[in-house]
Structures are given as structure tokens and as C-alpha cells.
Amino acid sequence: MKYRTAQSYKEFKCIGGICEDSCCENWEIDLDEASLKKYMKQGGEFGKRLKDCTKVKDKQFILNGTRCPFLNEDNLCDIFIEMGEESLCETCTNFPRHVEEFENLKEVSLTMSCPEASRIMLAKKEKISFLCEEGTDEEYGLKHIEPVKSLAFWKKSHVNKLDKPLFEVLYEARQLMFDILQNRQEPIAKRAALVLVLGNRIQELIDSKNYAGIYKTVEKYRKKLETSDIDKLKKEWEKFSSMYNKRVTEKEVWLKQILNMYEGLETIKAEWTELLSMGMDVMHGRDNLKSMLVAAGMVQEEEPGEETDSFLRNYAVSYQEFMRYYQEKEYEFEHILVYYIFNYFLGAAYDHDAFTKVKFAVISYLVILELDVALWLKQQKEFLYEDQVLVAHAYSKEVEHSYNNFESLQLVLSAHPILDVEHILIGLLS
Hints:
four-stranded mixed sheet; single chain; two-stranded antiparallel sheet; 20 helices; 2 domains
């Protein structure tokens, strides 16, 4: 079996009890059959504890509030301590790894829902690169895992089978997307816009079963990118950016709708709700924003002044100011986009829904960015690397590790009229 991972993949080591957001809290722990049998056969007092804390029929542990019953006071695992690392179930062994399987290839990544995995990824100033090598599950920290194929259940039902010709062309298209996203001569929003337009065109060709057309499109984009002649690729972007001053309000209304969409998801952790509420406060207009800034000591309520009043009326000003403030770390947003494209785009070789996966990456970037801006404002215009880790990992935990949230979000992304190319391009305007 071949394994493709980010070059930094093997840097990861669980930091155990000092982790600020233990993976042994806030969600159910599903047990594989082999681990369940082993636990039920365990003797002695610890064996009794295992039996008492397990819902055998549901194949899950009985949580102690929001915590795994075997997470001790030092935030360490008693199963690991009593029975050894090899006795951990598949869920606990494999986390925070995300696996996609394509016949003789497994693509494995570290999910940003783990704070330490987020730190490793976001700390890198260099572009993310990938390695593909022969290996075994054990070498990549995995127990046997049945890969989850992305099922577009809202489309016509289909056999969940790899479309190999499509996989091969999507692999080439994904590499082009990486190159566009990592072209640091362009601002990150423009790179995201180009990938969005490319993804939309690829979907049109998939729907018409014109896989040869995808190759031609990729070749055309590649040629222009390599010659730095990407004017034609910017057509859609320029069409909307030229109208920026007229569409600022439209962008703000659209972003409010997107954040409202996330409010409807199941809450995995209260920290996420707090971040989202902060973002909603900023986006909900002058009064809420003013109140938040007064509370933070950034604005005096009795003396707003003409300049402050103008700022409060136009959230876009603070957005642009944040982008200037964080310009030297724009690579973090690049990494986030590459991460979501790497994890999910090739899944379209199973469900033929490439554009939804591109939209997922772009919308994820936009939501994380909006929450960054809100936190920056709350912290009196200070935003540190650990703040980005906080936001990115809270977002990932919310949308990538709840089956209901992930599937609900994919459904909305695939079908909602405000999530077409034109609306998302407006959202990308800076």
C-alpha cells in the first residue's frame, strides 16, 4: 500500500495531559468489534470497570458528563496505563488522523480538530508539500480503518465505487489547485477565487461526463500559471472586484447568512459557540459592534468621533485593516485552504461532486477568517499564532467530527442558492 501525507505528518506526537482540548472529551467514542471483545474479556477490577462503563449494544463508552470514563484526573488514559497502547480502540488510535483510500493508495492527514496538529501545520512558513511512499498502517500510526467515502446523498443514488478515470484527472486538477493556492505573488482571496472558478468548471465537465475536457482545462490553467500570464484566469475575480465599492453591503449581508448557517449546527464544544457568537455580534451591525468595542475599551461611548463613527458603520474597514495587520502570516490561510482541498477533493472520484468540496474549502477559509477578525477586535486589535490555532481547531472539531454537522453542511453547500460562484466571489472581495 502507498501512503500520501504532508511532509510534516510524522512530526506529530500526542502531548497527552497538557493538551488544552483533550480528544477524550465532548464526543461519543465508538468501539470497534475487536476492541470491544478484548475489553469485555478483561479480568480483575479494571475489567469490571470496563464492563460497567460500556454500552455493549451501542458499542460505546458511557461518558462521565462530557469526558471519556477512562480519562483520569491528569487527563491521561487509564486504558493506556493499565493495558498498554496496543489496547486502545481504533477510534483512539487513529485520531487525529483522517484517512481516504483509493484502491492501493491511502491519503492520511492530521486533522486540525487536534490543537497540536493545528500547531504543526500553521507554524510552517514554507509551502505544504506531500510525500508518497510504500508503508503499513502501523508505520503511519493507524489501526485497521474502514475509509469513509464522501457520499453525496442528496444526489441520485449510486454505487459507492471509485471512478478511476475521474480519480486520475482529479488528481491532476488538485495539484493545479495546490499550485494556485501556493502562488504567493497573489493575495490569498484571489487565489481562493481562482480555485473556486476552476472547481465550478470541473463540475460542469463531470456532469457532462467530459473527463477529457477536464484534462484540457487543467492544461490551459497550468500553462497560463507557469507563464505568469493568468489574466484570463482572473476574469471572474476582476468582474466582481471592479464593483467592490458597490457590493460591500452585499458582502456583509452574505457573510451574516453564512454565519447563521453555522449557528444551526450541533454544538460540539461551548468554545465554538462563543467564537461564533462573537462573529455574529460583529456582523450584526453598528450597535452590537459598538457595544463590543466599548466593552473592550477600544471606543468611548460618549465620544465616538467622526472617524470612529465611520469605522463602526463600515465593518469592511476593520476587515481590510486586519488583513494588513496579518499580511506576514497570510500563509496560515493558504495552509487551511490546502488542508481542506487535500482532505476532501479527491473524494469526488466516488460521488462525482467536486465543486461542493471546493466550496467547503473556500467557505471554511472565509468563516475562520471572519472569526479571526472578530477575535482580533475583541482583543483590542491583537491576534497571535495561538489565537489562529484556537479558531482553526475549534472550527475543524465542529464541522469535521460530527457526522450530522458534516453531512448537513455538505447538503447546504451543494444546493443553497447563496452558495453559487457569484455569491462566494462577493464573499471573497477584500
